[in-house]
Design goal:
This protein has 204 residues and is mainly α. The chain folds into two domains: 49 residues, Homeodomain-like (Arc Repressor Mutant, subunit A, Orthogonal Bundle); 127 residues, Tetracycline Repressor, domain 2 (Orthogonal Bundle), CATH 1.10.357. The chain is 67% helix and 0% strand. α5 runs antiparallel to α7 and α6 crosses α8. The protein is elongated, with a radius of gyration of 17 Å.
Length: 204
Amino acid sequence: MSSAPARMPTPGGTATRAPVRRHLSERQADTVARLTDAAVEEVRGTGYDGLTVRNVARRAGVAPATAYTYFASKDHLVAEVFWRRLHAQAPTAPDRRRTAAARVTAAIADIAELIASEPELAASCTTAMLAGDPDVARLRNHIGVELAERLRVALGDDGDDAVLDALSLALSGAMLQAGMGYFPHVELAERMGNVTRLLLGGSR
């Protein structure tokens, strides 16, 4: 599951929860939540290749035409699922008594746990996030900013923009490689821990 194969955007603003293409009423928000929940169930059963917006709509009890008013494609839908899960996760507060490497490793472990908890969804997100769909591109930017911000908070005053950029690039690449099957998602935190210690020094 990767935000992009290239660098993640540096945090220049706040990633807002504005995934779908218009402001939602309470009823519309409920419909979107049902669709995203149904998408997770569909992915668990069929994987990315078998996923369709129509089948997700059927599982959610929503007309396909209605589903398409919120999601332009299955890639858009899958990207939205990951954004919601990332946005809902409460990251571990950095312990300033620990080394910078330990704090960053802990922040990455939170992200890795979220990814590894749903292997089929993680694999689907890798494909979906690379789509050229403008709605996916917008979500990809939100996700990239959120991930970079988590790294920035963990670093605190112990790293400059170059270090943050290197960590962001490494995390982006590691997420992509895991999504492509080069190594299991459960190894993401450990592998990034090695990279983090190489960049920042320090121990576990």
